[in-house]
Write a structure and sequence with these properties.
The chain is mostly helical and about 140 residues long. The chain is about 45% helix and about 5% strand. It has five helices and two strands. Strands 1-2 form a two-stranded antiparallel sheet. The radius of gyration is 26 Å and the shape is elongated. The mean pLDDT is about 80.
Length: about 140
């Protein structure tokens, strides 16, 4: 038999949306779980959105922080900033150098791909080692 304390009520469950499950980079299902104090991995934007929605429902900053795993001060900072969700900037694409082959050292001027960067670093270290050996 499952017993409950007399007078105990089921806690209120919060729902961020009734129809949408995501909006851009925001996963509303994960946000819903976080809003209800369940353990879930959230991005920074999802944490801010969950905090904004809990704040709109009148939940205290300390409780919001506890549910989302952040400090009260962080929630207050987000509120003062206007609940702005940070924009993630993707890594820049390597510069298109056309059909040019990578140089002997593994580097082509202006190219930012990992191969060119690693090759340039290796060539620089080798040149320094040759200078030290010659001295």
């Amino acid at each position: 038999m499952i017993a409950t304390r007399p007078g105990a009520a089921t806690p209120t469950r919060y729902y961020p949306s009734t129809t949408a499950t995501f909006n851009g980079d925001l996963d509303y299902i994960a946000i819903e779980h976080a809003m209800n104090g369940e353990t879930v991995q959230l991005t920074r934007g999802e944490r801010i959105e969950a905090a904004r929605q809990l704040d709109a429902r009148g939940i205290h900053s300390t409780e919001i922080g506890r549910r989302l795993g952040v400090s009260r001060e962080t929630v207050v900072t987000w509120r003062k900033a206007g609940w702005i969700i940070p924009v993630t900037v993707p890594d820049p694409e390597p510069i298109d150098i056309g059909g040019a082959a990578h140089g002997r050292s593994g580097y082509t001027r202006g190219c930012r791909c990992r191969t060119c960067k690693d090759g340039a670093n290796a060539a620089s270290k080798a040149a320094k080692a040759r200078r030290r050996a010659a001295a």
